[in-house]
Design brief:
mainly alpha
């Protein structure tokens, strides 16, 4: 009742609302890359692997774009892989198809393991998980041997294997990924995640990795916003780890309203905004900014980012960390930013 009253007041005095977010939109509406969008449609329709190969190769030496297209294509292979088998048979030494195969194996390993705690995961689940993870690692190593020595994609896949295999090789793989593509967003994000207290590092190491990467990246680059993700990881671990109580929510909001936290986050956002974006793949970092401004209680800035995200969205897990559910967290804050409801 109160919601509809606020909605009426907002409509009368605040002007029309933007289109309400849609979470179940067709994947095509979420893909801003027209080459990838067309290739995806053809691949789903005809099962011809050549369109996937052409789209990946068309990225040239834009390694971030190449890896993005490859990841989307690999996601399709996890659902229907006949065309992947055909590609592998036709061109077994194509680094793209080998890397897609590694990602598919890693995805199957994750599904075999499941999302339950270790205590609630069976020995058979662990056995299959480790077997598939080892196959994914071996396939990733082969992709590195076959790849262009400038392409960080195989190193990013190898870094991902650390979640299952441990972090002994992380420094070597991260260093090589940086030599190949110094500001690669995916490589730096993985390094930051693997360096956090939840995995193989600490809060201090995580912030060091995030700040070092952001400092080196040029204005307008997505990597400049890596420290925002470090703040989310810290707040989740310290205040909201398995805790969705009102007290935990309050502690999270207080953290993001601290002057030192805002000074740090605002500085990186200002650097990111200081130049035109260097990538069209901005959804993730825009969500980061929206989460930050929402938790900090800064309505105008939050609304501006929600407007940038647009109508069709796929909220990332950070919304769920602090609100229990990704879509609920996004919706609640979208309405608040648009003048309807509170946070």
């Amino acid at each position: 009742m109160f919601f509809y009253a606020r909605l009426l007041i907002r409509s009368l005095f605040g002007g029309p609302l933007p289109p309400v977010p849609e979470f179940d939109a067709d994947e095509d509406l979420l893909i801003k890359d027209p080459v990838l969008r067309d290739a995806r449609r053809q691949l789903l329709r005809d099962g011809d692997w050549r369109v996937a190969k052409q789209a990946i190769e068309a990225a040239g030496d834009d390694w971030a774009l190449r890896n993005y297209r490859l990841e989307v294509v690999a996601g399709l292979a996890e659902e229907r892989d006949e065309w992947l088998d055909d590609w592998t048979e036709a061109e077994p030494s194509d680094p793209a198809v080998v890397l897609i195969g590694a990602k598919v194996l890693a995805g199957r390993a994750s599904r075999a393991r499941g999302a339950a705690s270790a205590a609630n995961t069976s020995p058979e689940q662990f056995r299959v998980f480790h077997s598939l993870s080892e196959q994914a690692l071996e396939t990733s190593l082969r992709a590195r041997e076959l790849s262009d020595p400038r392409d960080p994609g195989p190193l990013i896949r190898l870094m991902s294997s650390c979640f299952a295999a441990g972090a002994d090789e992380l420094g070597e793989w991260y260093g090589e990924a940086q030599r190949r593509d110094p500001h690669n967003f995916d490589a730096h994000e993985l390094a930051m995640m693997l360096s956090c207290a939840k995995w193989y590092g600490s809060h201090e190491l995580m912030f060091e990795v995030a700040h070092t990467a952001a400092e080196a990246a040029p204005p307008g680059h997505r990597t400049v916003l890596m420290p925002l993700a470090a703040h989310f990881e810290y707040a989740m671990r310290e205040f909201a780890w398995d805790d969705r109580s009102d007290e935990a929510q309050k502690a999270v909001r207080e953290y993001f309203r601290r002057p030192d936290v805002q000074q740090d986050a605002d500085g990186w956002i200002a650097k990111f905004r200081a130049a035109p974006p260097r990538s069209a793949q901005l959804s993730q970092v825009r969500h980061w900014m929206a989460v930050y401004f929402s938790l900090a209680g800064r309505k105008p800035e939050a609304k501006a980012v929600f407007d940038e995200l647009g109508r069709y969205v796929s909220p990332p897990h950070e919304w769920g960390w602090f609100y229990g559910d990704t879509e609920y967290g996004y919706s609640k804050n979208w309405w608040w930013a648009n003048g309807v409801g509170g946070v």
